[in-house]
């Protein structure tokens, strides 16, 4: 009897350690979800933090390309995986969320699922959940990059190439990164110089970015675009400020921050709104 009780306690302990399966998630519960592991689950996001696509200034070419690709996907037509790379704070992640919002208006079945880089090894399990659903899914991985000994990049092949089963027809991947090749340039050069076969040493990691059908580059904005961004925010949120004052304050703000970007523009608007007693929407 004692041994049977011990086996029961062991079985119960193993059940506590092993997380339960996800079951069948309610994919109609929201238009966006966050993927979590341990246990695997899709957490609904009631309100997505984003800005209107019309407020994203200075990235018109990338905006139009991403929006066209997203609309194709929303309508059930073929679409590419997309890598948005380049300067920090220039609206890469904001554009993904804004493009999804536009697509969701046209096709409510389009869902946005955010997953973290460290959860990439679980992407196969996520695809199995999404495969066969009547909904369509944009997987969004923000700030994607890999270090020298990082093997997480291999997991991406499940969604970029699809393996034997192939990538689900109802899934695309949108990723943002500050690096075009998803790994530091100095690391690429070091491996080329120190490896016995320098080409093969980095080819697998570098070629990962080649598996994205679309590359959209983002570059630091000039002063005119910076001021246009701020004026657009001020008009959208009802912040009353004349052009001369806006220009003087915004230029000084950018100088104290050491650069201009969409993020710096929003930070100035946040400060300005606070000083003027204007509330900003949580969507900002």
Describe the structure.
The chain has 284 residues and is of the alpha/beta class. The chain folds into two domains: 32-218, Rossmann fold (3-Layer(aba) Sandwich), CATH 3.40.50.300; 223-276. Helix content is 44%, strand content 13%. The chain is built from ten helices and seven strands. The chain has helices spanning 2-17, 60-74, 92-106, 123-130, 157-160, 185-194, 198-210, 223-237, 243-257, 262-276; strands at residues 32-36, 41-44, 82-86, 110-114, 136-141, 171-177, 214-218. It has a seven-stranded mixed beta sheet with strand order 2-1-4-5-6-3-7. The termini are far apart. The mean pLDDT is 84.
Summary tags:
alpha/beta; 7-stranded mixed beta sheet; 44% helix; globular
Task: Please sum up the structure shown.
By secondary structure, the protein is an alpha/beta fold. Helices cover 44% and strands 13% of the residues. The protein has two domains: 187 residues, Rossmann fold (3-Layer(aba) Sandwich); 54 residues.
Secondary-structure map:
Layout: H1 2-17, E1 32-36, E2 41-44, H2 60-74, E3 82-86, H3 92-106, E4 110-114, H4 123-130, E5 136-141, H5 157-160, E6 171-177, H6 185-194, H7 198-210, E7 214-218, H8 223-237, H9 243-257, H10 262-276
Parallel strand pairs: 1-4, 3-6, 3-7, 4-5, 5-6
Antiparallel strand pairs: 1-2
């Amino acid at each position: 009897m004692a041994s049977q009780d011990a086996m029961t306690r062991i079985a119960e302990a193993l059940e506590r350690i092993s997380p339960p399966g996800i079951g069948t998630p309610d994919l109609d519960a929201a238009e966006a979800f966050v993927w979590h592991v341990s246990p695997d689950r899709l957490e609904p996001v009631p309100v997505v933090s984003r800005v209107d696509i019309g407020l994203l200034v200075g990235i018109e070419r990338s905006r139009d390309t991403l929006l066209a690709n997203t609309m194709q996907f929303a309508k059930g037509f073929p679409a590419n995986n997309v890598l948005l790379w380049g300067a920090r704070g220039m609206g890469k992640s904001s554009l993904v969320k804004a493009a999804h919002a536009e697509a969701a208006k046209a096709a409510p079945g389009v869902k946005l699922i955010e997953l973290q880089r460290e959860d990439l090894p679980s992407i196969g399990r996520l695809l199995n959940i999404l495969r066969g659903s009547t909904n369509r899914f944009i997987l969004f991985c923000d700030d994607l990059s890999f270090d020298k000994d990082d093997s997480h990049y291999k997991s991406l092949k499940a969604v970029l190439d699809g393996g034997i089963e192939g990538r689900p027809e109802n899934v695309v991947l949108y990723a943002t990164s500050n690096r075009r090749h998803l790994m530091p340039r100095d690391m690429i050069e070091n491996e080329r110089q120190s490896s016995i076969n320098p080409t093969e040493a980095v080819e697998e990691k570098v070629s990962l970015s080649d598996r994205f059908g679309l590359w959209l580059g983002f570059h630091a904005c000039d002063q005119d675009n910076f001021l246009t961004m701020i004026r657009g925010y001020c008009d959208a949120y009802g912040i009353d400020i004349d052009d001369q004052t806006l220009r003087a304050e915004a230029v000084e703000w950018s100088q104290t921050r050491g650069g201009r970007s969409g993020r710096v523009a929003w930070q100035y608007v946040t400060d300005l709104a606070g000083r003027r007693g204007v509330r900003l929407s949580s969507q900002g």
